Amino acid sequence: MQAECKETTCDITRLFKNTEYLFRVRGVNKYGTGVPLQSEAMVARNTFTVPSLPGTPEILVSAEDFATIEWLKPESDGGSPLLHYLVERRERKSARWVKVNRDGAHLDSTLKVCGLTEGNVYQFRAPLLNLYPPYHRHPRRQHQSGLVSPVDDGGADVMGYILEMQEAGAEEWKKAHEKTLRSAELTVTGLSAGKKYCFRVAGINVNGTGDFSEPYFELHDDLKKTICLRAGGSLRLFVSVTGRPVPTITWSKPGVDLHNRGFIDIGSTSTTLIIDRSATISWEAPAVDGGAPVNNFIIERREASMRAYKTVTSKCSKTSYKIDGLMEGMLYYFRVLPENIYGIGEPCETPDIVLVCEVPLPPQKLEMIDVTKSTVTLGWEKPEHDGGSRLTGYVIEACKFGTDKWMKVATLKTTDFEHTIEKLNEKEQYLFRIKAINSRGASEAKEMLTAITLGNNVTLCFLPSAAGGGLLQYSSEGGERPGRKDPGAGPASGGPASSRLLLVLQR
């Protein structure tokens, strides 16, 4: 949420109401970023609510063109001090409520209402406002084109709608139509190309205009759940999408090419992402159809170690097909046979053998082994899963702390589990990450949690002792000394000051 925060408190905004969040905090010093501390799950919502209803307004004094009304204050302010009352009036024959105190700054429970017409019958009401939204009922929206009827009609039938629009950057909302809308759909015209607009809608009944409802995107509950998969498992996600004009649908994941990793199907109202052990093949229709149109294709497969083909499907009308149920790490051949009313034609086989595999999992346990003024030595372990294809190597990348520009610094063999990166800048801080490579591509990166500061020269040596034990001498030179210092250690003779930590090892 924030890259830097020097206090122990932080205000986090732009959260979605009634949505559950997790937060975590990391400490940062000049050596890098520490391990995060994570909070418990919490729901974003107000700690207070709407105030209770005020008393029914009563007429104290009335004349030809004014009336003074009074009401009782609410029993509860909802946990937040009242800001003001919003007094409204309407004529008996009208359905529209009109604000009386347009400035809104009214905290007294009496008000003189001017500008009335002699002989008319009026009704008054006084909703109130605190820091919580001022109305009790909120129309619910659904993600679809057009307008949607409110769930709560306020005790009377909905007579119509009011649609307002606001140009991006402007403060004023303008009515997008002249007459009250009777249907739950409207095409807004007269808009300027290249500009952004916001829209909101409110329902109308005999009691007045309800709360405005703004459009939003609602994600299905099934897509909010965390999905856990075993290494090499299958994943299928189906998402319904509606909108007008028809929205553009894309799938993406940082650092991963999903089009190569899985199968993506995009339609006008839905999209599907499938990542499993499958292969999608495509072909061209035969140039010669044998005198009758080709109306079907037969798909077959065989393992590389077998001679006989097995039928995958005998009914396929398209020129592409997705073959499921393949074994990871196995080698296959596929072939397609065209068919018309006269029979089955000659097969067309894949020219190359097909290996069913995915990109590997990231390497494990990336750690720093040694650091000097210009070099860093890293060590790691191989991934838990190679994706079904033999690993071909590793790639190490580095970036300076505080930037996001990653540079490839080494390409290594599969037998390498340790590497020294040279020609680094002294006293600079670096972040490192490593990827595993197979025939399908690169894995996700395994990244070090903390930055490494160059310039720390660390020496460990064991000094034998006459007592049968020994002394482990630790010294750090050329930079800031990590760890606890020995207060009794002084500067070394004829050289720079250094710190020493002596540990007695017992047999």
Automatic annotation (TrEMBL):
<feature type="compositionally biased region" description="Low complexity">
    <location>
        <begin position="488"/>
        <end position="498"/>
    </location>
</feature>
<dbReference type="GO" id="GO:0008307">
    <property type="term" value="F:structural constituent of muscle"/>
</dbReference>
<dbReference type="Pfam" id="PF00041">
    <property type="entry name" value="fn3"/>
</dbReference>
<dbReference type="InterPro" id="IPR036116">
    <property type="entry name" value="FN3_sf"/>
</dbReference>
<dbReference type="GO" id="GO:0031430">
    <property type="term" value="C:M band"/>
</dbReference>
<dbReference type="InterPro" id="IPR013783">
    <property type="entry name" value="Ig-like_fold"/>
</dbReference>
<dbReference type="GO" id="GO:0048738">
    <property type="term" value="P:cardiac muscle tissue development"/>
</dbReference>
<protein>
    <recommendedName>
        <fullName>Fibronectin type-III domain-containing protein</fullName>
    </recommendedName>
</protein>
<feature type="domain" description="Fibronectin type-III">
    <location>
        <begin position="133"/>
        <end position="226"/>
    </location>
</feature>
<keyword id="KW-0393">Immunoglobulin domain</keyword>
<feature type="domain" description="Fibronectin type-III">
    <location>
        <begin position="362"/>
        <end position="456"/>
    </location>
</feature>
<feature type="compositionally biased region" description="Basic and acidic residues">
    <location>
        <begin position="478"/>
        <end position="487"/>
    </location>
</feature>
<dbReference type="GO" id="GO:0045214">
    <property type="term" value="P:sarcomere organization"/>
</dbReference>
<feature type="domain" description="Fibronectin type-III">
    <location>
        <begin position="1"/>
        <end position="52"/>
    </location>
</feature>
<feature type="domain" description="Fibronectin type-III">
    <location>
        <begin position="262"/>
        <end position="359"/>
    </location>
</feature>
<feature type="region of interest" description="Disordered">
    <location>
        <begin position="473"/>
        <end position="498"/>
    </location>
</feature>
<dbReference type="InterPro" id="IPR036179">
    <property type="entry name" value="Ig-like_dom_sf"/>
</dbReference>
<dbReference type="InterPro" id="IPR003961">
    <property type="entry name" value="FN3_dom"/>
</dbReference>
